[in-house]
Design goal:
The chain is α/β, with parallel strands linked by helices and 400 residues long. The protein is built from 14 helices and 14 strands. α4 packs across α5, α6 crosses α13 and α10 runs parallel beside α11. Bound molecules: zinc ion. Zinc ion binds next to loops.
């Protein structure tokens, strides 16, 4: 926030939205603004429909005197669209501004068909989902998209993604905004694109571990990727490469060819795809990580043994990750996230990492499951659009 006595309408909205100050008196106290100035700034937020008076009735004022009315972020004035692309499957949904999923759809969408076809189809899904949720296209304030590749967050484009042939440097934001307009007739809305593991980590951290200041999620499906949330924000590195642990070379992988074209990557020996290939070699049909997931769910002993071995390989790499970042939570998500894999991770992790760096570490499996990426994508859009500096711009654009 800007200096004392200089808080903007956006700063006030953030204080209310995060629950740090929810009455006029508390806002005066926190910001140092006069009662009249707080009133003027709140008035703009009320007129925009972004703020409402709480249903709970008056509470005691921190400044004494008359009890004051509580203020709330009005989450009914807009909705968010989100989608999470995997290599052969996608999920999409309509979310409320507070992250509640209002309508959801999952289905086949093959990333190798290329961005034009895939994003066009997503536009159609979004139009149907809005109808199902009973919301008008004009209520959509933004779209969040999770993709299985490294993303340059400045441009929203993927950078040499091994699992997304034909998508390198493609204008994903522009195409998805256009697809939304084509299928709904509404004007384009802001589109944010991020890596799937990043958004899963963000979704899980915000909803389940908001006080954890260093949070790591590892997604093990067709590939392997990690998302890191530090101090409540996604840590992306300088150009979106942070957490791309699937292509770290491991000794066991020397003979294994990775989708990136190199030999020896962690993903080539320990991903869902790698476990599927091991199963095929032993005569068990499995085409992908999701087939391995089904086998694990049915208690297949061969799948469990390979998953545990994959967990050991990943655990060895995670010992370094944990030593570097000292996270409070290390969450395992994706097709292989289950008891066998987790057992393997723990075996190597505790053997290789310093006891000091794992003393307070919780190693957990995903809580939101297949919805983690959607929830994270929705939250990213809301945090972006309601950030104090953007609130000011948007209020001016609305003529307020
Ligand atoms: Zn690789």
């Amino acid at each position: 926030m800007t200096g004392r006595g200089q808080a903007s309408a956006g700063d006030l909205l953030e204080l209310v939205r995060t629950g740090r100050a929810t009455t006029r008196g508390a806002l005066q106290q926190v910001t140092g603004l006069s009662r009249a100035t707080v009133g003027q700034r709140l008035d703009r937020l009320f007129r925009a429909g972004w703020l409402r008076e709480g249903a709970g009735g008056p509470v005691d004022s921190p400044l004494g005197g008359r009890p004051s009315i509580t203020l709330e972020f009005d989450d009914a004035h807009a909705v968010v669209l989100a989608a999470d692309l995997d290599t052969r499957h996608a999920r999409a949904c309509v979310l409320s501004l507070t992250g509640e999923i209002l309508a959801e759809h999952g289905g086949t969408l093959v990333i190798e068909d290329g961005p034009d076809a895939v994003l066009g189809e997503l536009g159609r899904w979004f139009a149907e989902l809005l109808e199902k949720a009973g919301h008008r296209p004009s209520e959509v304030c933004g779209i969040g998209l999770a993709v299985p590749g490294p993303v340059d967050s400045e441009t929203g484009r993927v950078v040499q993604p091994p699992m997304m042939p034909g998508w390198d440097a493609y204008d994903i934001r522009g195409r998805l905004a256009r697809a939304f307009t084509e299928h709904t007739g509404a004007p384009g809305v802001p589109v944010l694109v991020d890596n799937d593991a990043n958004l899963m980590a963000y979704g899980e951290q915000r909803t389940g571990h908001p006080d954890c200041s260093a949070f790591v999620l590892v997604k093990v499906s067709t590939g392997i990727g990690a998302g890191v949330v530090v101090g409540g924000s996604i840590f992306r590195g300088i150009d979106g490469g942070a957490g791309d642990i699937g292509h770290i070379r491991v000794p066991a992988g020397a003979q294994a060819l990775c989708r990136c074209g190199s030999y020896g990557c962690l993903a080539a020996v320990a991903s869902g795809g790698a476990v599927a290939r091991r199963l095929v070699e032993t005569g068990v049909p499995a085409a992908s990580g999701s087939d391995v997931r089904d086998l694990l769910a049915s208690g297949h002993p061969g799948a469990a043994a390979f998953a545990r071995e994959a967990g050991r390989q990943v655990g060895d790499v995670l010992a370094t990750v944990v030593t570097l970042l000292n996270p409070g939570v290390l969450m395992i998500a994706g097709d292989l996230a289950g008891t066998s894999f987790l057992t393997g991770v723990r075996e190597l992790l505790y053997q290789r990492a310093l006891p000091r760096s794992t003393a307070h570490l919780h190693v957990l499996t995903s809580r939101l499951g297949e919805r983690a990426g959607l929830v994270g994508a929705g939250a990213l859009v809301v945090e972006h659009l309601y950030a104090p500096e953007r609130v000011e711009e948007r209020l001016l654009a609305l003529g307020m």
